[in-house]
Amino acid sequence: MSKTDKTITEQLAELETLVAWFESDEFVVEDSLEKYKQAETLAEQIEKDLKTFKNEVTVLKQKFDKQ
Q1: What was the pLDDT predicted at 4?
Q2: HEC secondary structure over the chain
Q3: What interhelical angle do 8-23 and 29-66 show, nearest 10?
Q4: Contact predicate 47/15, CB 8 Å
Q5: pLDDT digits over 25-47, tens only?
Q6: How deeply is 6 buried, as exposed, middle or buried, from its count of CB atoms within 10 A (0-12, 13-18, 19+)?
Q7: Start-to-end C-alpha separation, the chain
Q8: pLDDT-based confidence at 57, cuts 50/70/90?
Q9: How far apart are CA 17 and CA 29, in angstroms?
Q10: How far apart, in whole angstroms, are the C-alpha atoms of residue 60 and residue 15?
């Protein structure tokens, strides 16, 4: 899991909120760079967590297939 101890689902919800902000009437150019950086960092963490999750599933599958 990520260093923030948020689940992948929670991280995705947070990313969706950030994306929605960019698409909303609340969009402010002055805030966009910081929000973009937050979204980029979050997306990178989600990708990392998904890779870790995939690796764990692969290991479990290999163990199951050996039985």
Answers
A1: 62
A2: CCCCCCCHHHHHHHHHHHHHHHHCCCCCHHHHHHHHHHHHHHHHHHHHHHHHHHHHHHHHHHHHHHC
A3: 150
A4: no
A5: 999 999 999 999 999 999 999 99
A6: middle
A7: 28
A8: very high
A9: 17
A10: 29
Count Cα atoms within 13 angstroms, Cβ side, for 2: 19
Tokens for 29?
A: 């150019």
* Residue-level pLDDT at 3: 54
Taking the C-alpha atoms of residue 42 and residue 54, their distance in angstroms, rounded to an integer, is: 18
Specify whether the CB–CB gap between 2 and 10 falls below 8 A: no
